[in-house]
Amino acid sequence: MQQAFRGSIFHCLADPGPHGEDSAVEHIEDGLLVTEAGVITSVGQAADLLPGLADDTPVQDYCGKLIVPGFIDCHVHYSQLDIIASYGEQLLDWLDRYAYPTEMRFADEAHARSVADFFLDDLLRNGTTTAAVFATVFPQSVDAIFAAAEDRGMRLIAGKVLMDEHCPEGLRDTPESAYADSKALMDKWHGKGRLGYAITPRFALTSSAAQLESAGRLAAEYPDTWVHTHLAENQEEIDEIAKQFPGYRSYLDVYDRFGLLRERSVFAHCLYLDDIDRKLMAEKGAAGAFCPTSNLFLGSGLFDLQSMVDAGIRVGLATDVGGGTSMSMLRTMSEAYKVLHLQGQSLPASRALFLATLGAARALDLDAAIGNFEPGKEADFIVLDAGASHITARRAASAQSLDELLFALIFLGDDRNIIATYVGGALSQYD
């Protein structure tokens, strides 16, 4: 059925950084977004499109509010939801103290599904319609997140975590079981509806050479899947990996030699890369996930967006919950601004939105399907209301431009300001 949504429409056509806002963004103050069967059919001035609608087409009135593409989270751990905002520690100690014990609970299928339901509802509440998600080592945790996403019609990438070294015994698999379990899950879920599978070694430190070899074999056998892992997040981690894999040029070189650096490889963090690493990432078509809240919370370091973009690497934003401290992409954008500001780099509101929508879609190789409002793309979008909280309403009243309003919403907004989330053209319902 045809549907139409009227409001102030804003989306990105390209990266506003190198291209400038004039050609990279489109803003239609009184716009109309028209969808049919979950797909965008047209977008433009309301006055131009309204007369062409069928008489029975419902028009949802969001005048005075902002319609933007659904947010895309390039890296997040659903299993760590219950340890978000856990005090203290840097990466390796944080994993031992908080992450691994909570992930043990996902051996229980009922627990995994309960967390998956809450997690996805909270993503939708915060305007996130697509995510690349870490599950746990237990296959049932992958089944749980995929089943919950399928129920909600969401586009989601996920995979079973692979770990056979330097982790608790109860979370270990083997190179053989990692391959077999991953292959079975791929055959079950990859390409089913809007779901995609990611080969997911946790990070090089927790995988033996034999396990990374089996992961690389999967990556070669299933080139349309993703590879999703961590890279160069913490200096202690990097030092330990250098000891574990002597003779490798860098942390990235470990992944490359095992066939895990390719198109659809998504690496979270990427804080401590040199020019050779970045050049190699670009040549192989890999992408980086910018995780500002977790990098600050765990004291890991500052992401160098300019160097990544200059090298030709695609970058998208990520919450990285539970090291990250918020499910909100608005909050994540605001922290990204601070991280870049500390390095003398700017992040205007339009570019922040790009990194959470079209830029993230490009990083996940999903920009043919989502990321903006080009006709033919899937109708995932959200409605932002600056008047939904007292502080944003007051700040909006003095905003002199859309860019100023967007910037204020990024810093002051929260889930109250996201008054509707649409997935495939359907209004999402969540508790």
Tertiary shape: globular
Number of strands: 16
Could you report the average pLDDT, rounded to the nearest whole number?
96
Largest sheet: 9 strands, parallel
Low-confidence stretches: none
Beta fraction: 15-25%
Q: How many helical elements? A: 18
Quote the distance from N terminus to C terminus. Answer: 26 Å
Helix content: 25-40%
Secondary structure class reads: alpha/beta
Q: Provide the gyration radius in Å.
A: 21 Å
Describe the structure.
With 431 residues, the chain is of the alpha/beta class. 39% of the residues lie in helices and 23% in strands. The protein has 18 helices and 16 strands. The chain has helices at residues 16-19, 21-24, 46-49, 91-104, 109-125, 139-152, 175-189, 209-221, 235-244, 251-257, 275-284, 292-297, 305-310, 329-341, 349-356, 358-363, 390-397, 402-412, and strands at 2-12, 25-36, 39-45, 59-69, 71-77, 128-134, 155-159, 161-162, 195-201, 226-231, 265-269, 287-290, 314-317, 381-384, 418-423, 426-427. Strands 5, 6, 7, 8, 9, 10, 11, 12 and 13 form a nine-stranded parallel beta sheet that branches. Strands 3-2-1-4-14-15-16 form a seven-stranded mixed beta sheet. Helix 6 packs parallel to helix 7. The radius of gyration is 21 Å and the shape is globular. The model has no long low-confidence stretch (mean pLDDT 96).
Describe the structure concisely for a colleague.
With 431 residues, this protein is an alpha/beta fold. It is built from 18 helices and 16 strands.
